[in-house]
Amino acid sequence: MNSTPHPVPAPLARSQNDRAGLARHFKAVRERSRALAAPLSPEDCQAQSMPDASPVKWHLAHVTWFFETFVLERFEPGFEPFEPAFRVLFNSYYNGVGEQFSRPQRGLITRPTLAEVWQWREQVDERIARLIELTDCAEALRLIELGLHHEQQHQELLLTDVKHLLSVNPLRPAYQRHWPLVSVASVAPRWIEQAHGLVEIGHPDGAGFAFDNESPRHREWLEPYALMNRLVTHGEWWDFVQDGGYAEPRWWLAAGWDWVRAQGVRAPLYWTLPHAPNALPSVFTLHGEAPLDPHTPVTHISHFEADAFARWAGATHTEWRGARLPSEAEWENAAALLPVRGNLQEGDTFHPLPARSDTRGLLQMYGDVWEWTCSSYSAYPGFQPAQGAVGEYNGKFMVNQTVLRGGSCATPASHLRASYRNFFPTDARWQFSGLRLAK
Q1: CA 431, 433, 439: angle at the middle one, nearest 5?
Q2: SS3 280
Q3: Phi, psi of 272 (to 5 degrees)
Q4: Strand 271-272's sheet: what is its strand order?
Q5: What is the chain's alpha carbon radius of gyration, rounded to the nearest angstrom?
Q6: SS3 360
Q7: Does domain 16-167 have CATH number 1.10.10?
Q8: What angle do CA 328, 296, 256 make, to 5 degrees?
Q9: What digits encode the pLDDT tens for the residues 198-210?
Q10: How far apart are CA 287 and CA 404, in angstroms?
Q11: Which residues pair with 372 in a beta bridge?
Q12: Does the pTM of the predicted model rise above 0.70?
């Protein structure tokens, strides 16, 4: 799900039933975006808290721009734009389309108003619905499906971006005032051995929608390995903090140690460290400020932090001896036969929850937090970048990024699958990112 690439899906044939399903899915996704914005004021939707984040109003406009620019402009008879100036204003980074407004200054776009953006969305929704009903062009339908997955990416970004925005307000306001947590004891950590040897990785042909960076399916060799049965918790991370984990250079990659010192990092993003001895930190959530629950998965950590924790855990805990981050191939191999089920966006908790079932299998593989891997984001063998403006940024981002897997509490369930590859720079941590140990 990154905020950057929107790769092109593989060709997909459609029957009339498929077309009706696409129309229902289009309506549901567009209505979900409106529901996610509903708790916010126009002022909330206007502001931008940092260059990596975008205003809610911009997200709502950009996904509409996508449908107008890549679908209606090409396939609607007698096409006319809602407002020609929006082509530049809400273009993100598609050089093939033309100029873009400066990303760090998106919060300065006070016109159009939020009401005008909603009017634009409604008009585009009507036109897309009509196109789904009438077009005979398979490519138009494929692009509409791509646009829906693109919008689901931005639904997740809407939540993570507004969380950062509200966190910088000294009033510590809540996105929604409904604390979802019922504190339960942590499931005991346990290593779960996984199948190994020669395995197939990547999206299977003909298995439904996938981005092009998930293909081609190919073989990889995996040495014997095990994954931890659950995610690393806030309580386990607090042990790392109290043990001086952020002050000990031997746990950190060189670039990570430079980052810790330059940024003065002492804990995950959104933590407030306590002044009183034996007290726990508090943490900012989409439900406002709350006491840290030690049984919930740790989140909002960078790859640097995840890697340092794994090194510390493997060296200081006998039961975690040999701990490291999994590769993306190890993660996908373990998740391939598991259903996409967990604490995902549809649950409206918008916060990671404790593992609730002490079974002998893997828990929390989908939802709660994106899981950092040790894998650099790069092309699979035989990968060919998609042609045209829609796919221009996929291949270009295959450098200086690290892969995450599994989705988070802000990710829509219908947007996920075992082969889904998310990726961010190693210092990014405003997303719901956490970790699972491997050995």
Answers
A1: 160
A2: coil
A3: -115, 115
A4: 271-272, 282-285, 288-291
A5: 22
A6: coil
A7: no
A8: 50
A9: 999 999 998 899 9
A10: 25
A11: 404
A12: yes
For 92, half-sphere exposure in the C-beta direction (CA atoms, 13 angstrom radius) is 26
**How many other C-beta atoms can be found within 10 angstroms of the C-beta atom of residue 268?**
22
> Would you state the structure tokens that stand for residue 326, as one six-digit string?
């999994």
Element (DSSP H or E) covering residue 370: strand 370-376
Q: How many CB atoms lie within 10 A of CB 138?
A: 12
Domain 191-434: CATH superfamily is paralog of FGE (formylglycine-generating enzyme) (3.90.1580.10)
| DSSP annotation of 56 | H
Query: Which two structure tokens, joined as six digits, stand for 215?
Result: 């293909």
pLDDT digits (tens, 9 = 90+) for 271-317: 999 998 889 999 999 999 999 999 999 999 999 999 999 999 999 99
Both tokens assigned to 9: 């899906």
What are 26's two structure tokens? 């289009």
One-letter amino acid at 162 equals: V
Give the end-to-end CA distance of the chain in Å, rounded to a whole number: 26
Amino acid at 408: S
| Residue 140 contacts residue 75 (beta carbons within 8 Å) | yes
> CA geometry: angle at 398 spanning 337 and 334, to 5°?
15
Q: Give CA separation, 411 vs 69, 388, 417, 426, 432, in Å.
A: 25, 27, 11, 20, 10
Among residues 418, 386, 393, the alpha carbon closest in space to that of 8 is found at 386
Spans of all domains in the chain: 16-167, 191-434
3-class SS of residue 282: strand
Question: Of how many residues is the chain composed?
Answer: 439
Q: Which two tokens stand for residue 56?
A: 């809610």
